[in-house]
Design goal:
It comes from Salix koriyanagi. The chain is α/β, with parallel strands linked by helices and 433 residues long. The protein folds into two domains: 74 residues, no CATH class; 336 residues, 3-Layer(aba) Sandwich (UDP-N-acetylmuramoyl-L-alanine:D-glutamate ligase). A nine-stranded mixed beta sheet has the order 7-6-3-10-11-12-13-14-15, with helices on both faces. A four-stranded mixed beta sheet has the order 5-4-8-9. It has a two-stranded antiparallel sheet with strand order 1-2. The longest helix is centred in the C-terminal third of the chain and has 15 residues. The two termini are 26 Å apart.
Length: 433
Amino acid sequence: MTILRGPNNNSIEQGQFRKKTNFRCKSSVGVNAVLLGVYKYEVKRQRARGQRPRGCVLLIRNLSQMGVATLPGNGEIATDAVATHPLILGLQPAALVDHVAHIDWSLLDHIPGDRGGSMPVAIEELEHILKEVKAHKLALPGELSPMKTMAGGSVANTIRGLSAGFGVSCGIIGACGDDEQGKLFVSNMSFNGVNLSRLRMKQGHTAQCVCMVDELGNRTMRPCLSSAVKVQADELTMEDFKGSKWLVLRYAVFNLEVIQAAIRTAKKEGLFVSMDLASFEMVRNFKSQLLQLLESGDIDLCFANEDEAMELLRGEQTTDPEAAAEFLAKHCNWAVVTLGANGCIARHGKEIVRVPAIGEAKATDATGAGDLFAGGFLYGLVKGLSLEECCQVGACSGGSVIRSLGGEVTPENWQWMYKQMQIRDLPLPDIRN
């Protein structure tokens, strides 16, 4: 059962709840059992009656504005409010919270690692970087806040986008700490309709990442994962994967054991596997392990950005995106290389398509662009769309997230995406914000 708590951990009484949210859905469900359960139930019930489920959408948004969070009962995160067997599962061994901020690019001169990449740091370094970022963050014109904190991680971004923007039933496999960051992760993902019954809560710290964004939208990431709790390979069960169709994961050598275990179990249950190459540093430093994973034949869909593609083919005669897509397609059913403002190139069997980017030429923040592209592409696959249409939906989705700060699409930008899809005669999601 989900308990609602407001600011200062005070419970919200039903009268106060109805008054503050203007909740008018015809349901006898009490406050302590509301949120996702009422939302999903009322959306379906009102649609069946030909009504617009506006009150339920306002309910969720107003709860968020009130500072309401979902606090799991009996030490569990599981909830029956969402699909028992999600269509798409994401494996993110360690739940992660992103701190995203616009900064003066010169700040990176004082931070170890390459600009534009993602390099793990210790907790002490993370705290130092956060302190520097808070002191040097930039407020851009029209931006409400130069810094945002939200549930993050590549897989979480993809899964949240599929659930919130495309109405696809999704769940996440992983673990989070019993700290404030863990509560934030749970609240944010629950709010967006993600099934958390496979997310283990453990004593300890939740992973964090500082995402520093320059004025051109380029981002540099410094994740702190070493002290974070995470799900272990021997904790995965067949039941975690039963009834689902896709497993989404991100390549990471420090999670290789649990990744391999998840792939083995997923394949036994008949799931397709989608993998993102993570970062050019990960490809550069752990290329042999990556090649073994690709050559296993267990990866059905692989995403790489242009930098990762070049690292993958470093030392080869040809390192262009077309060659990278061809290389990946030898091992995967679908291979996609994203090219930022230049769109993407994709292969499926002998079919090759190149699709231009959709949206702003200049990104407010590129954080999550590849993750949301992957979400849109997967939506296309489960809808049975053509390769070109999958890329177009991916381009619409990726274009929506770069319009604002952080890897979570705003309601306004979801509407922008739906408009772009409609213009291109692409099938719109059944549930739209």
